[in-house]
Design goal:
CATH topology of chain A: Transcription Regulator spoIIAA
Strand order of the largest sheet of chain B: 1-2-3-5-4
Structural class of chain A: alpha/beta
Oligomer: heterodimer
Largest sheet of chain A: 6 strands, mixed
CATH superfamily of chain B: Histidine kinase-like ATPase, C-terminal domain
Distance between the termini of chain B: 23 Å
Number of helices of chain A: 5
Helix content of chain A: 40-55%
Number of helices of chain B: 4
Largest interface: A-B, 21 and 24 residues
CATH architecture of chain B: 2-Layer Sandwich
Number of strands of chain A: 6
CATH class of chain A: Alpha Beta
Bound molecules: adenosine-5'-triphosphate, magnesium ion
Helix content of chain B: 25-40%
Radius of gyration of chain B: 15 Å
CATH superfamily of chain A: STAS domain
Chain lengths: 111, 147
Amino acid sequence: MKFELSKAGTFLIVRIGGELDHHYCDIIRNRIDPELMEPPIRNIVFDLTGLTFMDSSGIGMLMGRLRIVQAIGGNACLICENKNVLRILEMSGVMRLFNRCKDIADAVRGA
Amino acid sequence: MMKEINRMCMEFPAKSCNEGFARSVVAAFAAQIDPRFDELSDLRTAVSEGVTNAIVHAYNGIQGEQNMVKLECVLYKNTIEITITDFGKGIEDVMQAREPLYTTAPEMERSGMGFTIMETFTDDLFVESKPGAGTKVFLRKVFTVNA
Ligand SMILES: Nc1ncnc2c1ncn2[C@@H]1O[C@H](COP(=O)(O)OP(=O)(O)OP(=O)(O)O)[C@@H](O)[C@H]1O
Ligand SMILES: [Mg+2]
């Protein structure tokens, strides 16, 4: 699993690559949540471009972060191209709740 | 009767770091029959769900050498059968547990999609469980024969 955090204005940018399962979701959650408590951050972008595997643990992790940003009046965006990952995101309804963007520039436009 | 080509069995402690290990083992084992890439991906996802359930739910998340998960695979010409067994708390109502979005662990950010994913990504799913004794999840995946 590859994981990288950065910031742009009100956006927290989370890049995740490789394989995302329960083991790594626990690690990622603990890294993201403290950052979401730091103003002016209130939006989150998940860049899953490099993700090759995700199971239901990823659904729970994404939905949990969505709930946090919604509670602080922000939005959640998702960048994803991998067919297997997209299938899981669509099946579980995650795709409908996130704004789908084509890249980071697209996601943070107007930040 | 299908002719068995190969079989394997392994046991590992219910630790989250073994989720990736279990997926990789199954994928490497199935490679012998040269499955299609997308079908192998589906299998990896289904195995991940079954093993994660054993690690997250069966032993209430308690990791340790005394809490084991057993993984068995039998390989046929174009089919793989996988059994994931734990010796944990079991499931009271399997029918209910298999329903989409049903979870007993929302506080752990579980979404209740595991069984639904296993069902969608394989050809057969059987679940056998006995409260207090453990759970056995049987998966069968039939691969498209490569031309
Ligand atoms: N091996 C097991 N031992 C005990 N209970 C289990 C086991 N596997 C599943 N369950 C029960 O069945 C429920 C549904 O499982 P399922 O995998 O569909 O969803 P989940 O694990 O709760 O969430 P998700 O898989 O989306 O993260 C679980 O919440 C749990 O109560
Ligand atoms: Mg599950």
